Amino acid sequence: MHALLKLATEANGYGTSRQATAAGIPRREIAKAIAEGQLIQIDRGLYALPSVWEDPYLVAQHRFSRGVFSDDTALFLHGMTDRAPFSLTMTFPRAYNATGARKEGITCRTCANDVLELGLCELETPNGNTVRAYDLERTLCDIVRGQKVVDAQLATPAMRSYARKPDRDPAKLMRFAKKLGVEKKIRTYLEVLL
Prior knowledge:
The chain contains eleven helices and eight strands. It is of the alpha+beta class. Helix content is 47%, strand content 16%. The chain is elongated, with a radius of gyration of 19 Å. A hairpin with a 2-residue loop joins strand 2 (40-43) and strand 3 (46-48). The strands form three sheets. It has a three-stranded antiparallel β-sheet. The chain starts with a helix and ends with a helix.
């Protein structure tokens, strides 16, 4: 039992049945910990210590592991907007059936498999957990991609903040923009801001 609680404590208060199995902890120990109130089942295969606040980003990533946080959600995780997303946005492979994610209130985007992992990185949630998201350059491309009218209240401040960042990489941004078919839109922002 102590090994199970230690595992959860080391993982910011969360643990999965997969992690427990990999650590050689029998699944009956998880059931026992839940029955004794030492763990709470958050979702199938996802558990947390009772003192931990539920992290909607981690839960969504666990439930929909093929998804990657994108658009306004990734922008928020990058700290490029203080506007928390009204609903989480995730990008899935084109062939993925995202009905379950939509029912959970997640805004679902799709993209071709050849660019699905373009700019993939790991980011920390506000609760300190690690989730899969797109890097800043990919995120900036995504917020202008596939929309006839770009959300200027989101895109313009994000592009301004990017232009002020000392570690910005405009060459990478343009490379991603070209691959994602938004080179003209991104170039227009960069010409004004840089």
